[in-house]
Amino acid sequence: MKVTAINGSPKGETSNSREVISIIRGMLDPAIALDVVSQIKQARHPDDSVFPAMAESDVLLIASSLFVDALPASLMAFLERYARYRASLSPAARAKRQRVFAVVNCGFYEGKQNACALKILSHYCAFAGLAWSGGVGIGTGEMIGAVKGVPQKASIRKPVIRKIRDVADAIAHGPDGSLASDGFAQHGLPRFLYKVMGEAGWRAQAKKNGLKPKDLFRRSLESAAR
Amino acid sequence: MKVGILYDSTEPESRALFESVRASAEGLANRIEVIDAGSGTSAPCICCFQCWTKTPGVCVLPRDEGTGFVEKFWDADYLVIISRITWGGYSTRIKSFVDRLIPYLHPYFTIRNGEMHHRFRYDSIPLFLAAGYGARTEGEEATFLEVTEANRDQRGDRLEMGTFIVGRDADAVSAAGACGEWLAKEITR
Fold it and tell me: Which domains does chain B have, with CATH numbers?
């Protein structure tokens, strides 16, 4: 079996989406080949030479971050190009059944907020002649990379790892493997705590950039308009 | 009242809906700002968050039409997004503009209608109204409704008719009049 994973995050190699792909790679039998295509490299330098290998894989695994309740525009542009490429193939090549799985994450607490993005991907599959096989939406996405050193069975990771494992299992299950329905999860911590930690994280980043916490509240355009 | 309109002049359907929406808004709003996604480019947001943590409120990407998206619309009461329905969401071109609205928001979180969202940088953000056309399936139409409702949830608003969809059996040019009437109703309620 051959899997092509598409890292849909514009943050590229350091993204939480890339980490999701690594987690799934670790769950799959090493005999299953998994290549990673970086969508953001493609956005900078569109290169159709990745498409033939993509079109030959049995599974496409799309990992992405959520942008305004939907997919990042740069990922949409890449998927549009792939659909066009696929439509240009011979009928025999086009007939190859490609299962598509997706894991979309967001910085909000609730995994459910990724539901629309997964539906959009299901409609994309219908449009491009691909077999939508289900997706998972992860909230508290900023933590995916932050807790990667913590054991997967630790209570903080468990809810998210369980959903990611559902995807890995469905991929490995063979040609009929799919999720019964889209799944949603967030890391095992209460919402108020995630909020406090997240906001401390933003202040830490601001400090690194030489700003004070109150600078985060700048009303730049309002000042410009006066 | 200030109304912002985002549309894509490369598509005749979008042009027809835009003309009707603008005519409708002209009688009701004292300020109207327009961005035509078809006559300028908006580089894709790279998710760097520097518009929150380095130059708060200002995008660090080289200046383009996407920069104008934030500057023109940040204090609008309404933002009308006219888009081809693509897989149930906005078209890629329209979405490349929508993705650039992040500087409107503050990195801190708040809870609205039971869900976590971002605080606003300014007093509020524009209320998103959407007019979509060109869906391929009933499912795409249903998802477009959900996506645009989720957009409004970011602000905490629930509207019954905040999204106008040109049905698959209708053509956008002949539905344009109804779209203008819809907008007038929405912004005067």
Answer: 2-168 (3.40.50.360)
